[in-house]
Backbone:
């Protein structure tokens, strides 16, 4: 197997492109794909500060590495979810990467910010774990971006993530989610801009980049996502991709090309009518959804009976 560009020995085969690449040419291909995503969707500029949500997995750590190489201003933000050894490992991988690359990393703990771990929040609020996690992350990512003077929040969602999410939203005709399924959501109503620069690249490609660049990351999936429908939809998309390479790309980008026919771009909306009485975040009610969640989790009547590990600090930096 030879590299399509230079004819040297290839190390990765990409059937969806009918191509194989050697390490240097693969690196050039991948960097170009990220740059195209940033440019096409006008995600951010080099004068803006980017809060990068880093979980300790391959995608977010690789994205941090790529954006740093491309010369963007980044600040890492890690939210410790309190999920036992998985969170311990995730935090350690993130710390090691930041220290190795001499990058700024801020850390917060969900047990301190929300009053309990993801499992605690899920149990008390009767939400699926991924939903409980999502509510907390949206609020805390946005707050962290404002706190650290960032104009945009970037996450490591890749093509596999976006195609499987799209499949689930279409199967259930989730119009609200479909309308917002865009790799660049503008700052609107007090919310900082959110972007996904890896939307043109697959999990396989990000794993290859991490391996070739010596990035040590958490390999296993979050244990709280074992029964998540998203993983089931990924399996379906992987089967389709195996039978017909390029299906994920055609499906996802076909939707983006047609998205405005169904969900026309809107002018930036007005800010929500309230500022949360507790945290002062923009809100559609007097108490924002995150603070309502926190109140319920910390209420003595609602707390789970199991003993929770206490946090030693609310924020740290390396």
Residues:
């Amino acid at each position: 197997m030879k590299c399509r560009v230079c004819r040297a020995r290839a190390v990765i085969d990409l059937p969806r492109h009918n191509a194989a690449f050697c390490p240097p040419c693969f690196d050039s291909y991948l960097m170009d794909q990220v740059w195209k995503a940033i440019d096409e969707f006008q995600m951010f500029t080099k004068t803006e500060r980017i809060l990068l949500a880093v979980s300790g997995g391959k995608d977010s750590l690789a994205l941090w590495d790529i954006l740093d190489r491309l010369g963007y201003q980044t600040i890492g933000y890690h939210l410790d979810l309190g999920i036992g050894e998985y969170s311990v490992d995730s935090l350690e991988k993130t710390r090691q990467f930041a220290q190795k690359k001499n990058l700024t990393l801020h850390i917060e703990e969900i047990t301190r910010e929300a009053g309990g771990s993801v499992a605690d929040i899920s149990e008390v609020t009767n939400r699926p774990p991924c939903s409980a996690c999502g509510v907390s992350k949206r609020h805390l990512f946005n707050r962290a971006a404002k706190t650290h003077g960032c104009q945009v929040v970037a996450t490591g969602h890749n093509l596999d993530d976006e195609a499987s999410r799209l499949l689930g939203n279409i199967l259930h005709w989730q119009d609200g989610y479909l309308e917002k399924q865009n790799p660049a959501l503008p700052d609107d109503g007090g919310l900082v801009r959110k972007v996904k620069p890896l939307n043109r690249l697959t999990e396989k490609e990000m794993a290859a980049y991490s391996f070739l660049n010596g990035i040590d990351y958490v390999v296993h999936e979050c244990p709280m996502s074992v029964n998540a429908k998203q993983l089931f939809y990924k399996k379906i998309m992987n089967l389709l991709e195996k039978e017909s390479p390029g299906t994920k790309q055609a499906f996802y980008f076909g939707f983006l090309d047609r998205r405005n026919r169904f969900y026309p771009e809107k002018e930036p909306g007005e800010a929500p009518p309230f500022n949360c009485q507790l945290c002062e975040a923009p809100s559609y009610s007097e108490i924002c959804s995150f603070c309502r969640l926190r109140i319920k989790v910390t209420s003595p009547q609602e707390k789970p009976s199991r003993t929770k590990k206490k946090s030693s600090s609310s924020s740290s930096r390396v």
Observations:
- The two ends are 43 Å apart (CA to CA).
- The chain has twelve helices and eleven strands.
- The chain has one domain: 34-215+226-317.
